[in-house]
Every structure is written in structure tokens, then in C-alpha cells.
């Protein structure tokens, strides 16, 4: 249904030019104070897209986001102690 997406943090030197990144993927957040852009691109074309983004003059560094690889389902290994405390 939805294509697999990969997140990237792109450190830029010019924020006005960073708005131009929308043609490569969907820009999720643009930090004006720290000069970085969080954007998502299709996972099947991510390598080619990042190669093109890296060539831009205002891009300083590109980091891949590991947010989708973090475990979000938690298990409770310890006993629930709240039932011992009554009103």
C-alpha cells in the first residue's frame, strides 16, 4: 500500500536553498537554528537520491536515520507491583 521509506538527516549551510530538497523526497522538518533537514525518501531509490543530494553545494553532511530500526514493542519482564498498593 505505502512504499517503504527511509529517513535521512541532511546538514545544510543554506536554509533558503534547502527548501529545494523537496523534489528529492518529502521534507519532514527543517531546523532553522541548527541548519538540518529531516526528510524521507523511497527505500528502493534511496542510494541514487542520496548520491544526487550529496552533489549539491549547500549540503555539508548526510546521516541515515535509524528510527525505523528501533524496537517499539516492549515486554514486561517484571511483576506488576501496582496491584499491591491500594487506596
UniProtKB/TrEMBL annotation:
Report any Pfam family annotated for this entry. DUF2129
The organism's superkingdom is given as: Bacteria
Q: Which InterPro entries match?
A: DUF2129 (IPR016979)
Keywords from the UniProt entry = Cytoplasm
Q: What is this protein called?
A: Uncharacterized protein YlbG (UPF0298 family)
Q: Origin organism of this chain?
A: Fontibacillus solani
User: Lineage of this protein's species?
Assistant: Bacteria, Bacillati, Bacillota, Bacilli, Bacillales
